[in-house]
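Structure tokens please, single chain.
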Amino acid sequence: MNSKVPVGKKIRSLRESKQMEIEVLAERAQLTVEQVKAIENDGPLPGLAPLIKIARVLGVRLGTFLDDQQSVGAVVSRAQDERESVRFSNHAAEGHENMIYHSLSEGKDNRHLEPFVIDILPDENPKFDLSTHEGEEFIYVLDGQVEINYGKNTYVLEKGDSIYYDSIVKHHVHGYNGQKARILAVVYTPI
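Here you go.
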């Protein structure tokens, strides 16, 4: 059983430690105050893009929100180990959580890459908004089929397929035809 990481509480704590008002964080991250409040109250997370923007404003890496432990050496993630997870709505129109992120780099200090195994939950009526953030993403399909809307293109990937793209281009990742899938995703974001 995976435990949920309290991302919002960590963001609020960092913001308050920097004596930054929520309105300032929202403006600098180009988000609404309501979005930041919802995130800080551990509501459904809208996806990685807003978290990346918040991390940049607060001057921390994305992983700061996802784990607390720090290790300067190698970090081993074993299949049998219980992993904390973070649930995202991934810009779903209804805001329900349809993606579960399992970090593969939990505890690694000063990392530049964020590797995840992501479970994409089935969604009978997927509605979503494309998102954008600085950096790059690599996705490898472990199980099922995945549809990726990238700019004006749509790609359908099957088990064993991969894609690498610049995440500054508007994009969205979801299960093909609303089906469940599992992917390995590696996200790079400059600080």
